Amino acid sequence: MKVAIVTGASRGIGLSIAKKLAREKINLALCSKNKENLRKAENFLKENFDVEIYSENFDISNYPAVKNFVENVYKKFGRIDILVNNAGILVVGKLNENKIEEIDYLIKVNLLAPIYFCKEVIPIMIKQKNGIIINISSGAGKTGFANLAVYCASKFGLNGLTESLAKELSNYNIKVYSICPGPVKTDMQYEYLKKLSFHERILTKAFMQEPDEIAEFVLNAIKGKYKSGSIIDTI
Predict the structure, then answer these.
(1) What residues of the chain score a pLDDT lower than 70?
(2) Among 69, 72, 73, 30, CA closest to 49
(3) Is there a catalytic annotation at residue 151?
(4) For helices 211-222 and 12-23, what crossing angle results, to 10°?
(5) Each residue of 53-64: pLDDT tens digit?
(6) How far from 174 is each of 15, 55, 92, 158, 202, CA to CA, in Å?
(7) Choosing from 151, 177, 192, 226, which is the catalytic residue?
(8) At CB < 8 A and 24+ separation, what contacts does 186-195 make?
């Protein structure tokens, strides 16, 4: 059976992706910073799907922790076929008003962590002569928005990573994709809505998608429905 790593898998889009992959009989390696939510997600998946699940609770902004996790996954399963870089956070506000600690941490989680995971997983996929890397980016990775400068920068960077890796890895049968959702019904999105004006909230809610819809795009990428290097809009 194939093995997929899914980051930020304890809720929202990440959990929906994990469910979708489990239905396809893909074994799962899950991680999240939230220990309680991760345990709940793992228990749900074990109760409802006939797949093996490995999980670790750690902060993906820490490179040694990422390296250790990937090594543990490979030791357990002997392969890593799919990497889904899903975990992400949001900082709202004008750049000059953002705290430097918030800026640094967002870039580490949203951009450096996916780079860390790719760095550790790619040698395994090269050895296997196949693999799929899917980065969950954002429409804010293609268009800049006021009060989201740092978030947009991280997602633009993620799309650049996708396009570059697709070219670097084309000779190894490793495919790389970015999925770019718009507004999605997640806890993070609802927190962001609180900071918008009434009219902005109404407009945003009109375009909000379900996490399962985003997970379907991930599954389509795994099934080879897109060209490697594609930056895929969900709306």
Answers:
(1) 187, 189-194, 196-206
(2) 30
(3) yes
(4) 50
(5) 999 999 999 999
(6) 24, 24, 35, 17, 41
(7) 151
(8) 186/11, 186/12, 186/13, 186/211, 187/11, 187/12, 188/12, 188/88, 188/89, 188/90, 191/90, 192/90, 192/92, 195/92, 195/147
